[in-house]
Amino acid sequence: MIRLARVGARKQPFYRIVVIEKDRARNGRSIEVVGAYNPRTSPATVLLKHERIAYWRSVGAQLTPTVEKLVAKHPAPAPTVDETPIKPPVPAREPAAESAAEPAAGPVAEPAPDSAAA
What we know:
Strand content: 15-25%
Shape: elongated
CATH architecture of the domain at 2-73: 2-Layer Sandwich
Distance between the termini: 82 Å
Oligomer: single chain
Strand order of the largest sheet: 1-2-3-4
Helix content: 10-25%
CATH class of the domain at 2-73: Alpha Beta
Order of helices and strands: EEEEHH
Radius of gyration: 32 Å
């Protein structure tokens, strides 16, 4: 269930919008906080995590009537189209053909051990 949990001081209400099991107390242990509601500001401040609310609704969570009104009044913002031009991908560089001037890669000769150091 998705409902309000009051966390404000006396006569200063502030609510968290929480996912909680139906039989738990109003301010009991919640599963996840998915928003906040402050009715004391003008206009009231509502912060919602729309993706998480949509997820919990998809797995069967029900909204209380108050939370349902808040979600309906503050819908998710429409996705905006990015106005920056999309750059085409840079083609992969092809290895250059070996020129005749460059020696072919072969075994590297190791320097001879220094006999004086022994």
